[in-house]
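Onboarding guide, step 5: your first structure request.
Type a short instruction followed by the sequence, for example:

Predict the 3D structure of this protein.
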Amino acid sequence: MRNQMLKAAGLGHKSHESEKGVVLSPRLQLDFDCPARHHFSVVFAADAALPSSWDCPVCWTVSTRTDGTLVDVSAPKHVRTHWEMLRERRSLPELETLLAERLALLRVGDIGPGAPRPLNPRTRHAA
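The system replies with structure tokens like these:
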């Protein structure tokens, strides 16, 4: 019975697996200097996009790479507004027509806060 017991490990415990035969992926170590004169290194995967700055683990200020390499930061992509996306689908005359139709329904009382609600077929009525 003792040989069949499972070993449990909580958070932060070392793995029971052997590290023999494990091939690690290629790595690259970058050095950073912070304005408060802290020097630290960060390890990245060799094929990862390398940053030009990193937060200092001591004082949390933005630190620059020791080798002085700057990454070209392109302008952020323009985020389209709801109006711009709507204008791609409909022209101004179509929008005017749609607005007139909806306002007419609102004035008659077919839609809006005071409009009668349709019966929901899922609700149960007492018989």
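Each response can be followed by summary notes, for example: The two ends are 64 Å apart (CA to CA).
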